[in-house]
Model the fold of this input.
Amino acid sequence: MTQKQRLLARRTEITGDLQEIEDQLDETPSKDWEDRSVERQGDEVLEALGHQELNELKRIDAALARIADGSYGDCVKCGEPISDARLELLPDAPLCKNCAV
Done:
């Protein structure tokens, strides 16, 4: 599987997760006060997960744009190549190991 295919597959997965989170957050709240309190705590967790996934989605879209313009695999900061091992582990990595620290 190419890096582009991996990124696109992860993007599809995240998009589905975000839709599921949105659907759960849109559910009608319980009329019971105690149940509503528990639901609100769950909503806060879902919102945090949604923010994390939105951030990952932005990184994936940026990586896909770098693939499209031919700069994928080069550090956006110093221009040096990003190691294959790093890209294998983090296919959306915009920085080489040295610039990431």
Observations:
- The longest helix spans residues 33-69.
- Residues 14 and 20 are 10 Å apart (CA to CA).
- The chain has a mean pLDDT of 89.
